[in-house]
Design goal:
By secondary structure, the protein is an alpha/beta fold. Helix content is 37%, strand content 15%. It contains 14 helices and 16 strands. The chain has a 7-stranded mixed beta sheet with strand order 4-12-11-10-9-5-8, sandwiched between helices. Strands 1-2-3-15 form a 4-stranded mixed beta sheet. Strand 2 and strand 3 form a beta hairpin. Helix 2 packs antiparallel against helix 10 and helix 3 packs parallel to helix 10. It is globular. Bound molecules: pyridoxal-5'-phosphate (PLP). Pyridoxal-5'-phosphate binds next to helix 4.
Length: 424
């Protein structure tokens, strides 16, 4: 039997000085009725808690760990960078190198700006869209997550065609009145908003693969539809590729699906495990950003030299080893099959979505194509599944509404072991 005594102690201590003992709510394991394990260190596909338990990790820090933890070449580059100073608040060659690599990987990102979190990237991209179009309203999708900026913490309004209402205390209703909520994979819900508000819609923002309600891929033609309707109304299309960027392929979801947005946000992988995110897009749109244009955006630690170093090395490794995308997709497929076979064996209805190295198993018999489908999953079964995995040394997301992430560090044997436990 594994024990978690030190984690439990640290959790109690942390709760005395940190709200809920954690610095991001999902880490508290509330949704799965457990105490969180406190992580001591990680290497490759494994993380180790303070109790000496080790786990095969399928959270991968929610995405950045596509090469596994503490990749030797990344760590070596970072150690070297650290010695040259942690922050200058002035431009560096590394920012140019990384920006150029991003542009090469994602050609629609002609100009890019670096920031420190995905939240900041999305918030800034939306400000640019509004500044460029001189319009106020934005359309987002129910179940898509774009960070915790005020205007995006919304639930749908009481009537489908009204603006959204805050989904968090502390957000004034006036901050969300320009946010409209459409349904993922539902073209009609988007058309209706454009018919009513089209002339005042600055942008549509979407996760090209929704990966914050489990994993929900776009229906055939959905992204192209968004491209067409935004073009028709003179609105911008923003792909929030904070998860999909450098994960679905080196060119992200826009390459994978062949649909090109006006603006893109990147995070997670782009910083190679350091706090770093990016927004960018068409030159003429991004030229509205200060100091070129009138849209203000700034950051003390933006383009941080250590973070850019981790990003550059991670991107180099991905760029020069693109076969790994096919390999991690195959591993994800094996896990997806294990869920299906396990479900069939146990007579337990499951529905599995998988795109590239992202996957999610829902405990429902219905195919999941949107948020309402995702929330129809039996959460008690998710809790039981999570506990079983953890106690067998496999670390998966402590919530149904997150993706399972596969990395290049997962070995065949580890995938095998995960498949075995899934089917217990
Ligand atoms: C994680 C995430 C964000 C927010 O990024 P942070 O770095 O946590 O602020 C935004 N959009 C998507 C799609 C994400 O998955």
């Amino acid at each position: 039997m594994r024990n978690y005594i030190h984690s439990e102690q640290l959790f109690e201590q942390s709760k005395t000085v940190i709200p809920g003992g954690v610095n991001s709510p999902v880490r508290a394991f509330l949704a799965v009725n457990r105490n969180p394990v406190f992580i001591d260190h990680a290497k490759g596909s494994h993380i180790y808690d303070v109790d000496g338990n080790d786990y095969i990790d399928f959270v991968c820090s929610w995405g950045p760990g596509i090469l596994g933890h503490a990749h030797e070449e990344v760590i070596e580059a970072v150690q070297k960078a650290v010695k040259d100073g942690l922050t200058f608040g002035a431009p560096t060659k590394k920012e140019y190198i990384l920006a150029d690599m991003i542009h090469e990987a994602v050609p629609s990102m002609e100009l890019v700006r670096m920031v420190s979190s995905g939240t900041e990237a999305v918030m800034s991209a939306i400000r640019v869209a509004r500044g460029y179009t001189k319009r106020d309203m934005i359309v987002k999708f129910k179940g898509c997550y774009h960070g915790h900026s005020d205007g995006l913490l919304v639930k749908a309004g009481s009537a489908a065609l009204t603006s959204a209402v805050p989904d968090s205390a502390g957000v004034p209703a006036s901050y969300t009145e320009n946010t409209l909520v459409a349904l993922y994979n539902d073209e009609d819900s988007v058309s209706q908003l454009f018919e009513k508000y089209g002339d005042n819609i600055a942008c549509v923002i979407v996760e090209p693969v929704a990966a914050n309600m489990g994993v929900v891929p776009p229906k055939e033609g959905f992204l192209q539809f968004l491209r067409d309707i935004t073009n028709q109304y003179g609105s911008l299309l923003i792909f929030d590729e904070v998860i999909t960027g450098f994960r679905l392929g080196y060119g992200g979801a826009q390459e994978y699906y062949g649909v090109t947005p006006d603006l893109t946000t990147l995070g997670k992988i782009v910083g190679g495990g350091m706090p770093m995110a990016v927004y960018g897009g068409k030159r003429k749109v991004m030229e509205t950003v200060s100091p070129l244009g009138q849209v203000y955006q700034a950051g003390t630690l933006s383009g941080n030299p250590v973070a850019t170093t981790a990003g550059i090395k991670t991107l180099e490794l991905l760029r020069d080893n693109q076969h790994l995308y096919e390999e991690i997709e195959q591993k994800a497929k094996r896990l997806a099959n294990a869920f299906l076979e396990g479900g069939a064996k146990k007579g337990q209805p499951v529905s599995v979505n998988q795109v590239g190295s992202l996957l999610c198993c829902y405990f429902t018999e219905h195919p999941v194509v949107d948020y309402d489908g995702a929330t129809s999953s039996d959460l008690d079964q998710y809790t039981a599944y999570f506990g079983k995995m953890l106690d067998h040394g496999i670390y998966v997301a402590p919530s149904q509404f997150e993706a399972m992430f596969v990395s290049s560090a997962h070995t065949e044997a580890e995938i095998e072991e995960a498949c075995r436990v899934i089917q217990l």
